[in-house]
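Retry 2 of 3 after timeout on previous attempt. Resubmitting structure tokens to design endpoint.
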């Protein structure tokens, strides 16, 4: 009985489905035409319905658009950060070049002002220099030094000045064939004859294993103020005169601290200056005695 009812329902549904599919397109056209007529006839009703639909849909669209806006803002922020990083790198390079030129200009200005007062001036001998890379930093609590990848085969010798574009970093203390050790100006064993550029007073820059070495052995009537530039004096013939070292950072309680111009924590490459005449000032390194064969 149930099978007969099912078969009857199927036989009725199939023709109805075929009829609906045949006239579906026609019904859609009629519906669209009816809606057009209704829109023309009842404008106020259509506008109200449309407004209601917009009121319902707009919050949903706002919620859906918020993640896209956040992603867009994030992309813009990243783009701005990359742009700022590139701009910062460019400005740092430009600032480094300007500081180097400023150092040269200040040195020449003070030298010219001093040399004008001299009737006879003998220029310094021409110094030669080589460029080396720092490959090891052996600084610690008790020693402030670095190793460079240039040695005796490259013309490096004991006592030669080691500089960067900013100023003096230290001097050569030990020389091998392919490497050499640089004693930094902050090391406890560093003693450098210096000159206060503004007053032309001589003194000694003494390292004490701190970031800012001390300025000692100045004349009693010397007046030193923060910001005064300190350069090598050239006395003793070890260092060429006029190499910038630092500026006075603090003066107080009988201690004068000098802030080095060279950032000793970020040195990558240096220049080793070969100053003619240094061979007669520093004793030559003694060769290790040969071992006797048993």
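Retry 2 succeeded. Sequence:
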């Amino acid at each position: 009985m149930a099978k007969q009812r099912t078969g009857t329902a199927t036989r009725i549904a199939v023709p109805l489905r075929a009829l609906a599919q045949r006239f579906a397109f026609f019904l859609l056209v009629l519906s669209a035409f009816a809606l057009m007529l209704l829109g023309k006839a009842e404008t106020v009703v259509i506008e109200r319905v449309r407004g209601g639909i917009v009121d319902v849909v707009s919050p949903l669209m706002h919620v859906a658009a918020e993640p896209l806006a956040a992603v867009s803002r994030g992309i813009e922020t990243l783009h701005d950060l990359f742009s700022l990083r590139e701009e910062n790198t460019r400005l740092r390079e430009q600032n480094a070049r300007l500081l180097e030129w400023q150092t040269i200009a200040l040195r020449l200005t003070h030298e010219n002002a001093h040399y004008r007062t001299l009737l006879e001036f003998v220029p310094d001998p021409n110094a030669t220099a080589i460029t080396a890379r720092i490959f090891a930093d052996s600084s610690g609590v008790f020693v402030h030094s670095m190793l460079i990848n240039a040695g005796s085969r490259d013309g490096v010798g004991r006592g030669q000045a080691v500089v960067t574009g900013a100023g003096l970093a230290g001097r050569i203390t030990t020389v091998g064939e392919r490497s050499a050790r640089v004693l930094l100006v902050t090391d406890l064993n560093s003693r450098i004859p210096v000159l206060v550029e503004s007053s032309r007073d001589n003194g000694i820059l003494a390292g004490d294993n701190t970031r800012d070495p001390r300025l000692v052995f100045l004349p009693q009537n010397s007046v030193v103020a923060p910001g005064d530039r300190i350069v090598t004096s050239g006395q003793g013939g070890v260092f060429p005169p006029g190499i910038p070292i630092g500026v006075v950072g603090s003066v107080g309680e009988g201690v004068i601290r000098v802030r080095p111009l060279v950032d000793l924590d970020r040195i990558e490459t240096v220049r080793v200056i070969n100053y003619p005449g240094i061979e007669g000032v520093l004793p030559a390194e003694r060769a290790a005695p040969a071992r006797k064969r048993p």
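Attempt log closed. Residues 43-115 form the longest helix (73 residues).
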